[in-house]
Amino acid sequence: MASREGFLTEGQREMLRIATENADVMSSLPLASSPKSTGPRSPSQTSFVLSENHHVKAPNGGQSAAAGGVAVRHVRRSHSGKSIRVKKDGAGGKGTWGKLLDTDGESFIDRNDPNYDSGGEPYELVGSTVSDPLDEYKKAVVSIIEEYFSTGDVEVAASCLKELGSSEYHPYFVKRLVSMAMDRHDKEKEMASVLLSALYADVINPTQIRQGFFMLLESADDLAVDILDTVDILALFIARAVVDDILPPSFIPRARKMLPETSKGFEVLQTAEKSYLSAPHHAELVERRWGGSTHLTVDEVKKKIAELLREYVENGDASEARRCIRQLGVPFFHHEVVKRALVLAMEISSAEPLIRKLLKEAADEGLISSSQMVKGFTRLAESLDDLALDIPSAKTLFQTLVPQAISEGWLDASYVKPLGENGEKPDKNDEKLFRYKEEVVIVIHEYFLSDDIPELIRSLEDLGAPAYNPIFLKKLISLAMDRKNREKEMASVLLSALHIEIFSTEDMVNGFVMLLESAEDTALDILDASNELAFFLARAVIDDVLAPLNLEEIASKLPPNCSGSETVHVAQSLIAARHAGERILRCWGGGTGWAVEDAKDKIQKLLEEYESGGVVSEACQCIRDLGMPFFNHEVVKKALVMAMEKKNDRMLDLLQECFGEGLITINQMTKGFNRIKDGLDDLALDIPNASDKFEFYVNHARERGWLLPVFG
């Protein structure tokens, strides 16, 4: 091009540039005629398009170009009189000589030509899709959720979500997690709720949680196409989020304003509010709708152990049995494998060699630790008397198994030493303590069957061993932890009844210290021992069995590096949480604990009715109808507070009548006064003369013999 332009004048170069530009414009126009054009183009269209882009000037005097926008010099006429436009770069048209070096045939590049140059190849545009970060995020979270549903590992799911980054897309994670769980079983629904609670604030902030749930509400109509009961399931997810404190209750009315009344999302919010969150004891209902905990219970683990041992005895495949034991994922509970295996060896004499082989191989490869093996033998030794009822030769067989296990190297020789290095006899105090433990176990079992608190108190008084009260508390909670929620609830209620009645606060503190000191041993038998103990501690504070300061006292009495210290911190966190009282009272499903909460409301109402002019005898009858004599200290406390607030000493007449009838015992009266004394500083914030009033009430009570001498 440079060499060719060297023979052109300046005017010719200008004409060539203008012609080239006009040709480029025409070739790029969508309306330009081409083989693909579907219809003719009018001259007016051409002139309009060109006028929008270029005004072409003729070289002679600047006169406007002819219609069509082409320079005059580049318009030729054929012999027939038709105008013919010159092709681009001057190649001409029909009846013209064409462009320099043009040939009749079509040119093409021969890659076999010795002069072939790859640079002469025409450029080929290769299309490539631009990845959307949101699409990549959505694909990644699906695999995270699928893996979580398979493993149930919350920590791994949280870690993967953190590593994924793109935190601005977390609302989509909430939406995808819930929508995937909605189309699965109750187990996955429960797992989804648990994961959201675990990720709340730490990984996903509260605003993103709300955005995710609102996106679910907006897509409820689409979800309903594939999931028939979308409205009920999504309503339950929202109710569960409110109960778990990851959605505020105000989310429902706010979201309702932003949704059409005819939408499924609007219906979801109505269902969540009316069917779940407005129901009595709704927290318990919602939390247990999908079966509660996602983890294996003790009973489930025991059942799996029994099944794998029976299968092993049938097929004799020790490697498969060890794999199943490892797959359970409860190394701290392997003592149960040892115990059940030994019992099976006693029941089926032909299975003994197989059992010994399995336990030896499991010990050799470190699958079952030495401590777990010893623990299993110890537990079996403690239950030999009961086992002998079904297997008469149990004791003899056990005495044979122990030396065999020691000689084969899979039971530590120290197992036989606890009986005494020199064969000395235990002293009398140990015998007395041993008998006491046996007796209280029977008493506690009877209580779990009868739910008779007065009978249990009489049994403890008959034992006449108040020095062992902390041991009773330890045994009570230990037995309750290995049972169902009903027994846990009954244990907490019993502690409230025993406090002051026959147990002091010091007894309670010492009992919990003993429990926490042995927390690691307790965890061998109870999978979730630490959390269970934390709830027992928190419940004791809510029930006024312990004061919050007592938790610090308990922590200070624990030895250094004791795992029980962490349990105390968990209990303090539970108490400090929002709506702690209601949630802790319901931690084991309500039951009697909720009856206590209902009793507080009834006590308040009967006292208000009596204060407004009620009859003493009717008030006493209402207290009697409550049927909770161990909770009458609440009557004393509320009556004294009401007397201070109303400046009406009429409440003292009611207390005198109750005490005279024996309706409120001296122990319950003393406990009520003690509770007022402990909370006097807080009470003084609302009642400035609370201290003076309380001192007057104490003197009044002492004169009438309401209080124990130890009070004050």
UniProtKB/TrEMBL annotation:
Keyword terms of this UniProt record: Cytoplasm, Nucleus, Repeat, Translation regulation
Protein name: MA3 domain-containing protein
Gene3D superfamilies the UniProt entry points to: 1.25.40.180
Biological process according to GO: regulation of translation
GO CC, one annotated term: cytoplasm
Location (main, coarse): cytoplasm
Family to which this protein belongs: Belongs to the PDCD4 family.
Subcellular compartments: Cytoplasm
One Pfam family recorded for the sequence: MA3
Residue span, MI domain: 136-257, 300-421, 435-556, 598-712
Organism, scientific name: Forsythia ovata
